[in-house]
Amino acid sequence: MARRRKILAYGIGGFLVLFAILYLFPYIWMLSMSLKPDAEIYSGKIFPENASLEQYQRLFYGYQFKDITLEIEYPTYYKNTAIITVISLVLVLFLDALAAYGFAKFEFRGKTVLFWLMIGTMMLPIYATLIPSFWLFSKLKLINTYYALILPGVVDAYGIFLLKQYMETIPSELLDSAKVDGAGAFRRFWQIVVPLSRPALGTLAVFRFLFVWNDYLWPLVVIRKEEMYTLTIGIANMELRQGMIVWGSQMAASVLATLPVILIVLFMQRQFLRGLTAGAFKA
After folding, report:
1. pLDDT confidence band for 127 (50 / 70 / 90)
2. Contact predicate 63/69, CB 8 Å
3. 49-103 residue pLDDT tens
């Protein structure tokens, strides 16, 4: 029996290692391509023989090829994405938490209907709302602006649902005690509910960061000017510029674009898991 368990454990472990290698291989290939000089790009070897940072330098200083200078506005793409992500993240965390607080701790007429109506919006595919959203922002003359990229995501039905489930586990007696001491509804929310909901807020922050940072379809629809490009649009348009394919620089841009995603997941993984599981069961 013990031998069978050991064989099973080794088998599962080997499968997981193989799966991890298959999952990580595209990232290893991307990093390797970004470190290869032009002469090795099509060599077919996984690792570069003469590692170089020239592909990264071209993102910031341009690509000189004979008499042609290929300018890549990569810092602008990065700045746009960072601004949009940070502002969207702050707004969605605050507004979703406020809405979830109302659903979790207040009773009002139509609460259940309104909540399930909101949940129903999660079933709508993004393609069903794409054209109406574009028409609306076009009429408001917000195309090619930060507003068009930020406003559609400042309220998230899934975020409200996630936070509501978590906030329902916070004892109402705690809020009642604060109310007796003279704390208003917003003060109870800001000083009691928000600090106690940090695991769920961390989980939502990771989800929303990944979604906004990696969003491609909506920026592709509402952005036309290159100075407003986000990383996803900018990197996609780097594939062919002025008749030249810049695979190495595109891989370098992808590596730099991936770094914030890796860092936020590594630093917030514990809080992320706590937020996913803490609201799963009610006391």
Report:
1. confident
2. yes
3. 888 888 888 888 877 766 667 778 889 999 999 999 999 999 999 999 999 999 9
Q: Report the pLDDT value the prediction gives residue 240, as an integer from 0 to 100.
A: 55
CA angle 98, 101, 107 (to 5 degrees): 125
The predicted model gives 169-177 an average pLDDT of 89
Closest CA to 70 of 206, 282, 239, 273: 239
Task: Enumerate domains of the chain plus CATH numbers.
Answer: 2-52 (no CATH), 74-278 (1.10.3720.10)
Residues 6+ apart with CB under 8 A from 69: 62, 63
Number of residues assigned to the chain: 283
Q: Which residue has the tokens 């570069």?
A: 48
The b-or-e profile of 153-191 (16+ CB within 10 A means b, else e) is bbbbbbbbbbbbbbbebbeeeebeebeeeebeeeebbbe
Phi, psi of 251 (to 5 degrees): -70, -40
**pTM here?**
0.85
Contacts 24+ apart (CB under 8 A), 116-123: 118/157, 118/160, 118/161, 119/157, 119/161, 121/157, 122/157, 122/158, 122/161
- State how far the Cα of 188 lies from the Cα of 44, in Å rounded to an integer: 61
